[in-house]
């Protein structure tokens, strides 16, 4: 532990916490520790498909910028390391519609390669669609393992521990980053974050383009080819906490992807497994500073990424660094002796005590 560097504790070891940790460590200015109840492969992040595509997350203008910054980071820092190391591949994606789409997605101006699909690219049964030429997909478990390895190689350390009171980490650090995902509901009493249950099926490899039937944002039909296998999806069941795969959902996902193309009919697929994750959904991604204990402590919130955690992860990590720098300059020097450590814990924080004023 370098005493000249500021200590930071990140709560959460999903793609959001790990990306933030890597960016903070790369500056050389911080000692960074992750505290997390669940570690990969037992996080929501490990249940993701995953591909670059903004989905179920707001506000769309910021999601656009974060997505573009994440795409740039992947192109410069991750894709060049090679697929064997990171489990990440550049992959074109088609978003398909059976009805015309007058509106372009609000995030599209941020993504240079975004365009409407050409007639000659259209699949049978679809009349409209969009494409991004240089998106990416990752074998999620392999990518998450690479993120952990990168974080540790930069000097980060990971403690598997549940944080029951948000003030506990402040005994050890003046700056805490809240990357707790859906856990923010309990950790800081934010009832605005809720689960959107997603179920996927892992199958043997399929074709070389990610295909997503977006006609219905609740009954999803997508095929995402990855490095060692492909993922079929999916579901978007709000406020559903069931973590067990449902046979009914599997049947309905298979029916939906078969309608994308005959090559995805069940007889042509070899099912390898099913996964379920609870997307940390919120009306708006919360990425902001909160000063605690009369301005002596800084809590940076970075949670509520819905269906886009991987797609915005590096953009949000870069903004987390900006918030840390901005907030740290405003911290009143905390002379540890005048804040007895037990005083931080002797009052349980009521859920109503948090203010969720978003910027
Ligand atoms: C089926 C499915 C498919 C998806 N596909 C994609 C996709 O293709 N592209 C994409 O961009 N996104 C996708 N997503 C969304 C993406 O998975 C999430 O947005 C992302 O994983 C959120 O990351 P996170 O780090 O915030 O949360 P998590 O991965 O849930 O990590 C939260 C961490 O905080 C810890 N934690 C919580 N509370 C506490 C506490 N009190 N004390 C200590 N630790 C705590 C947890 O243990 C965990 O380590 C998908 C999601 C699902 C379910
Ligand atoms: N629009 C389809 C989204 C693909 C996968 C994904 O982001 C999800 O299921 O959350």
TrEMBL record:
GO BP of this protein: D-amino acid catabolic process
Keywords assigned: FAD, Flavoprotein, Oxidoreductase
SUPFAM superfamilies in UniProt: FAD-linked reductases, C-terminal domain, Nucleotide-binding domain
Keyword Oxidoreductase among UniProt keywords: yes
Domain (FAD dependent oxidoreductase) ranges: 7-318
Alphabetized InterPro entries for the sequence: D-amino_acid_oxidase_CS, DAO, FAD-dep_OxRdtase
Residues reported in the UniProt entry to bind FAD: 44-45, 49-51, 163, 306-311
Binding positions (D-dopa): 222, 279, 307
Cofactors: FAD
A single cellular component GO annotation: cytoplasm
Keyword Lipoprotein annotated: no
Superkingdom classification of source: Eukaryota
Gene Ontology MF terms: D-amino-acid oxidase activity; FAD binding
Record-stated family: Belongs to the DAMOX/DASOX family.
Name the record gives this protein: D-aspartate oxidase
Organism: Heterostelium pallidum (strain ATCC 26659 / Pp 5 / PN500)
Gene this protein is translated from: ddo-1
